[in-house]
Design brief:
270 residues, alpha/beta, eight-stranded parallel β-sheet, 11 helices, 8 strands, globular
Length: 270
């Protein structure tokens, strides 16, 4: 099944637009696990098991694993999700951006080594930095467009010769000439609801991955109002607000409650 089909099916079945980001920070782990990078898999797998019926996707951030030499734990985690939540797509948040044979190797990393259903990519080296990933025809390729960080404006809000802004140009390319295989989606931050609405206008049918809700301050209801569309899937990501909702013995219960609350807020806004 293609990534877009998986996403549509699970979002409908679980009535969810929530994507839980898996950004493990051992210093924030609960109880005896605190500070122990060997518990990265255990922590993330517990979050997956506690929230798998509430989400439309999971999004592990590769840097949080690589920084602790925990790529083997990421492989185990991906396999765990495939076994225990096989219908929930997994987006590898890697933000890769390179050309030619290097991009081919990054595509194998995401889709062969880690068995991801989709990967985040930087499009700013052009189409030939995206094309090698397209050989994995059932996978999703989610391009950075208008990111949630304040510094994103340094480049993404620059005006081009035709009068459009750079992020608008990326959205048009992803919705048009570049999307020859129907695999593309866009990353657009919840912290810029007006720009989010503009991207949805330019790319009404593309899946949108929207970070920035929760710890980064994005408004969940405003996000849905800006970006919800019948023809284009919406994945609203929350990471820290779910993962670290509690630190006591009931940390996992609190994580589930935070996920449930966010899912319900999103659904009410829809």
């Amino acid at each position: 099944m293609k990534f877009t089909q998986m996403l549509a099916a699970v979002a409908q079945r679980q009535q969810s637009m929530l994507c839980v980001g898996l950004d493990p920070e051992p210093a924030k782990f609960p109880g005896a696990w605190k500070g122990d990078p060997e518990r990265i898999f255990d922590f993330c797998a517990a979050i997956v098991d506690a929230t798998k019926d509430l989400v439309c996707a999971f999004k592990p951030q590769i840097a949080y694993f690589a920084a602790h030499r925990a790529e083997d734990q990421l492989e185990r985690l991906m396999a765990h999700i495939k076994r225990n939540a096989p219908d929930v797509p997994v987006i590898l948040d890697a933000k890769r951006g390179d050309i030619g044979s290097t991009a081919e190797q990054y595509s194998r990393e995401a889709f062969v080594r880690y068995q991801a259903d989709a990967v985040t990519l930087s499009p700013f080296m052009g189409f030939d930095s995206i094309e090698p990933y397209m050989s994995f025809a059932d996978k999703g390729l989610i391009l950075l467009c208008r990111t949630s960080n304040p510094g994103g404006s340094d480049l993404q809000a620059q005006r081009l010769a035709d009068g459009s802004l750079l992020y608008e140009h990326v959205a048009r390319l992803a919705a048009g000439a570049w999307n020859r295989t129907g695999q593309l989606g866009l990353v657009v931050g919840a912290t810029f609801p007006q720009e989010l609405a503009r991207v949805r206008e330019l790319a009404p049918t593309l899946p949108l991955l929207v970070p920035g809700v929760g710890a980064q301050g994005g408004d969940a209801a405003a996000t849905v109002k800006a970006a919800a569309h019948q023809s284009g899937a919406l994945m609203v990501n929350s990471s820290r607000a779910v993962l670290y909702a509690g630190t006591g013995e009931d940390w996992l219960t609190q994580a589930r409650q935070a996920a449930m609350q966010t899912r319900d807020v999103l659904n009410r806004a829809r």
